[in-house]
Amino acid sequence: xxxxxxxTHKNVNTDKRGSGxxxxxxxxxxxxxxxxxxxGDALARIQYQDKSLVVFIPLAAPNEKVKIKITHVExxxxxxxxxxxxxxxxxxxxxxxxxxxxxxxxxxxHITEAEQVLQKELILTDLLKKFIPEHQYxxxxxxxxxxxxxxxxxxQLKQLGSEIGYFKKGSxxxxxxxxxxxxxxxxxxxxxxxxxxxxxxxxxxxFEIRINHLxxxxxxxxxxDGEGLSFSQVNNQVNEQLVNTTLDLIKPLxxxxxxxxxxxxxxxxxxxxxxxxxxxxxxxxxxxxxxAFSTKKLTEMKLQKRLFAFxxxxxxxxxxxxxxxxxxxxxPPRSGCSDIVxxxxxxxxxxxLVYISCHPVFLARDLKKILTSCPEYKISHLQIxxxxxxxxxxETLVLLSK
Length: 402
Ligand SMILES: C[S@@+](CC[C@H](N)C(=O)[O-])C[C@H]1O[C@@H](n2cnc3c(N)ncnc32)[C@H](O)[C@@H]1O
Known about the structure:
The chain is α/β, with parallel strands linked by helices. It contains nine helices and 18 strands. A seven-stranded mixed sheet has the order 14-13-12-15-16-18-17, with helices on both faces. Helix 1 packs parallel to helix 9 and helix 7 runs parallel beside helix 8. S-adenosylmethionine (SAM) binds next to strand 13 and helix 7. S-adenosylmethionine binds next to strand 13 and helix 7.
């Protein structure tokens, strides 16, 4: 939908010298919101001279008319903030969390979960249209989260002085909180307790509160890289569905040999070994804390003959080992797979490739690279798992098969 209603309320400098977009700073406009985008903002357009300019607006909802003020001017787009909602979207609702508008933890509490899911599907299909326009796929119904709140089994907070909370969106200012509505109850109630007991800090400190695999609450400081002690999926119920669906896809393929890259602590590995009793798996993970966990488990389960768990970065692993030409499972971090990993996966050209992604932009980019080199692959399964309600994040499961 294109916006033809854009009205400039302040005088925009349109003289010859002022053809740069800077003159739009602080100008006010009435816009129609088209959709939500990666990062969580809403997208609208304003007409300026002969250009249709994209403007990103936090806290707007799809299909509403809002009056905005331009807050930032970038080379190719603008940022704006809502001054007034002129016609509210039917999906708009009062955000359930008291900290929502200030806190950068969630981006979408102001719209219903049904609309959130719709927007996630639109984000994915828009990206696939852009990156792989010539490929066919059907997007299966999204797997919703049984819990829309209180679903996170771990959260990462920041502390400065005696304030603890998340950063305000786009800043390093802490929004002081006493609870977190998306965290499991036991974690949320730990926040005020921690506040009382933590020594005030002069510098920003980051720490994680989690329910560990023994169902105990623990908290510990985390490093500069923002990663906690180890990676684990944050939403147990959706993770279970993601693992089960992945198993359902792989079981009928019955691979003899499977390469699993970015294996973590074996979230997929152990269920696969349990279900595929004749399959050998080579799993690769670079975090030694995670591989220590899987090595201990594989010894306990006496799986040494069927699982070879490597502590290595995937880049060096793929440079020295042959990958399965049966089935490769990829579950990379948000930034997707590196070029070297993708080129070796393409070279191995397995019969089937399972890609689990937590960032749709990098998923679309990687699919384009794979499908350009191996056009014989079909997208035989494509599905969103709504692992992170109230935010713009989601997991996508893709099966490519020849
Ligand atoms: C999205 S997580 C998936 C983990 C696991 N599959 C799961 O479901 O819990 C990505 C994992 O890749 C690991 N990782 C990131 N970059 C890596 C690299 N270059 N080589 C090997 N592992 C990497 C991270 O430590 C993390 O455990």
